[in-house]
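Example record used in the benchmark description.
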Amino acid sequence: MSRPRRIAAALALGASALLLTGCFAAPPQTAGTGAVGDRVAVAMLQPPRSGLTPFSDDAFKLSRWRTAETLVQLDAAGDAVPMLATSWSRADPTTWRFTLRDDVVFHDGTALTAAHVADVLTRATRASPPPRILDGVDLAARADGDDAVLVTTGVADPLVPQRLSSPQLSVLAPAAYTGDRVDPVGHGSGPFRLTAVQGTTSATLDRHDGYWGEPARVAGIDVTFVPDGTARAAALRTGTADVVEAVPPGQYPLLDPALVHEVPMPRTNTLYLNTARGPFADPAVRAAARAAVDRAALVASAYEGRADVAQGLLGPALPWAAPLRDDPSYAQALAARPAPAAVRGVPITLGTFTDRSELPEVAVLLEQQLEAAGFVVTQDVREYSAIEADALDGAFDAFVLSRATVLDSGDPVAYLASDFGCGGGFNISQFCDPGVQAALERAAGTEAGPERRAATARAEAAVLAADAAVPLLHERVIQGESARVGGVARDPRERDLVTTDTVLGAP
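Model output (structure tokens):
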């Protein structure tokens, strides 16, 4: 029986997981060698939503399977490093030149060319909807000879290389593009060749021995899409899956602790305070709310200890953020906050949504903490689609939101500007402060690297000094890995999973 069918069987009989352990034998393998017979079985959370077109969020699956590649990729700090492009330079404020590898052959045997890369980037700008990373960006591309591509933007943009790392800008072979349709099957350039996709059920990939880089150590990947969290956990328990995405926290106690790994996510659970009207227009009242919050209690209760207490807006998924808070200027900014006001019977409305199951529980705990400090809390909890417009219009005094802090560029400045800039499109706090706006603009205009990260930390401090939002906790995701698999990526950005370093061996 094939690996996908074994997983499917485990899903169908998830309630009888113990019975399954004797039904399916592990495939032949050579311990620790990554021998040709070895294939990795992966149970993924979400099935494809857009036919695996790279212009959609399905692109992240192609990236996690290492079948589609981009011009550049990001290192752990979020800096751009070579992938299909070997180097890049800035020709003028709005133009970048990317030099391409000369040894890349797509899975269908065609070679990578500058003209084709320019065509793919142009197609991305015309996609409907366009890739998120291009939202609001006036980008154009053209070949510069046979081995380079010129990328121009309407205004100076120091993040062009980071933007081109987005999986939604992956480059597939020319034959993948037919009209408005993009077919990734057999048309990638990575170490694994996508050979078949069975709708929203499964996908199969084989090692590509003609890969331009280091070859994969396993023979292939067998993917099954498993939306049900209990079934994914059952597949891990029974050994019918080697790698499991997003194990539900409730399943954690039922699993061998050695098989589960918590990965910090670039997502912060935040209490946004309405700074434009209502009680929280007063900075001292905002300070009272901030002082009332017990972050550790939220983590212990709503997240069963599987989250990180927030020290700022940016969490451990961005490892450079915490050390920058040791700069004396950061502490000085926070020291300027007003003292908390004495609050007695101040009514506030607290909103959140049901789509993330933990948030209503967080709201209940926050209500208790805020009422203990003297606030009188009325909750409004709905589905996100029914509450988003009101939240953005400032209908609530406070709003609890689970917010991604980096977008596809791997850079958090866009998030900070969107949520706390005077013209921000997601400004739930209704916040506009000249000093914060100046700090955000300085960060946005700084070249990528250490100086930009330092400017980002200063902008974070300016936001927190105004108590426009109270960061509560940083979320984690639980990734399952069987005892026989090694070298699986634990990537906070969810771009890598099975890599060329992944290997199978006897437990």
